[in-house]
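Submission sheet (multi-component)
Chains listed below:
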Amino acid sequence: MPKFTIPKEEYVYKGHSACPGCGTPLALRYALKALGPKTVLNFPAGCGGVILGLWPGYAMKVPVVDNAFECTAAVSNGLRAGFEVKGVEDAYVVGWAGDGATVDIGLQALSAAVDRNSNIIYVMLDNEAYMNTGIQRSGCTPVGAWTTTTPVSNGKGYNLTPKKRIMDMMVANGIAYGATVNVAYPEDFVARMQKAKDIKGVKFIHALAPCTAGWRIDPSKSVEIGRLATQTGTFPLYEVDHGKYSLTKEIKKRKPVDEYLKLQGRFRHLQKEAIADIQRLVDEEYERLLYNVKVTNG
Amino acid sequence: MIEVMTSNYAAAHGARLAKVEVIAAYPITPQSSISEKLAEMSVKGELHGQYILVESEHSAMSLLIGASYVGARTFTATSSQGLALMHEMLYWATGARRPIVMIVASRAMAPPWNIWGDQMDVIGERDTGWMQFFCENNQETLDTIIMSYKIAEDRSVMLPAMVVEDGFILSHTFEAVDLPNQDDVDDFLPKFNPELKIDFNDPRRFGGLVMPDWWSEFRYRIAQDMEGAKKKIVEVDKEFGKKFGRTYGGLVEFYNCDDADVVLALAGSAVGTAKDVSDKMRERGKKVGVVKIKALRPLPAEELRKLNDMVPVVGVFDRSFNFGHGGGIFSEMRNGIYTPDGGPLIKNYVGGMGGRDFTPKHMEWVFEDLLRIKKEGKVDRMIEWIPLRDGTGRWY
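Outcome: structure written.
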């Protein structure tokens, strides 16, 4: 029998309403397996809250608070302040927001929560667009992607703005701990959450979760495509512990980015030249990461 | 113990005496000295909880909602643009049934910029489901904050409350304020112990998706509880009177109204001016009365309807204006008073906006105008802006 490092307990019930192949329930399951039952989650508008189902039920074993789009970090800070004044020390407070709710509309509140060194875990569930409202571009949408607000006509119109370097911004802001995780690497995901949970201050977790509808992918391929995101260096796995960068998943030989792009309908319009541009962008970003690892450990 | 202080300081003392547990603070004129005073109290160890500096009013309200979910008593202060920025989260506090208490030092909405007293900001939040209590003087600010917690946190109410003090006119004016002692306040105001809060042994979801087949029931509960709050407000006011010797009429106060020929209804600091002028005019045999709107939400419609049998003419003074409609309190009064059988003659006086002085002289002019209407038996002009400049300097 192989030995599993992932706790067996489940805190997300069956019967949630996520699409088949959605990465988000995996992320929620792995996060809660690491954190356990004394965890409160708060969700802004987005798929994360919606897939838990309709009132009066919800598909989760821990308390959940819903909040408005831009205030996840502020509400999380409030929950923490409440626990502190009530003398509750062993609870985990998790803000669980999408990429748009984080890097666009929620950035101000998040930055201020980092300033205050608020003792919260902030998970940015990144599926690279506003998926819950119907696949509109966000600050985390990668170059080259089709979305409903970057529609493609005659090979033009796809997203040209680079994905926001949110982790670097958070590190510059002064987070205690940061990590990128990927639902296609569950053991690493759980290990990062377990490491993060008892560090004091803001723990910023950037979680990649494929969206079958938004990425235009076959539901059976979301884990495979998630893995390719890391194997191609498009979404490298690393952590930043009090300012020090280190790779948590070394990729000896990165696969060509084309292998990742070609499985996704949102990139199908891209011609060779554009793919070469994206490869260059991915290489540059990866070099930046290696540079950050080097200089922060020197 | 009597001390001389501004309404802003009285508000800070109110929060201290209510033993608020989480305060979120962000500066805006003319509220800022409340936040400053609370910071000072916090550093001196006079507060019982956390004082948290946030980066916006939106986050202030969001943070308090989070803290309130855990069962903490919460407080913040704002004005004008800050209140408008909170707008989204005001609805959230109501829907989430969080009994947050907030003071608003009311101020004009820009542009053009104007930092002075004006009720357009608070009138604009009438529809958010917050209770709204207006204060006439600094003592009332302090007392209303303490009473507001008792009303808002009652399990039959569980709705947030907004305490309104007129910017500068109260917020920065010194008056003698009787500071209750802590034991008496503790005796009057029980600890916040909500029925539903975050509980790891009984996990619940707060604010999840409700479909159309249940949505109206959620709204109806709030509507019912806001109605029910009327009784609670009157009760708490009476109880406060017994304990501290001061009452504020509950929802609405009728002053010099019993045998009045005309009355003027209004809310906030101008009530004091109106009462003084009414007293003086009565010495000259002019029977004028004052209706002090203490609670705008819930609107005390039943009490206001008593005016139908009391007086033939009602004036309404407003420090705000809904463009294309009329003054804020004016439209509320009409809604409150009128029945299918009609009601008294009614006229709106709009003035004192953006910090413009509204003096006893102006107030007397208003009462005289109402007496003229009573004599003539008709309203020639429903809305009057007073005083307003034109080439001749006349009032219109």
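Remark: The longest strand of chain A covers residues 92-98.
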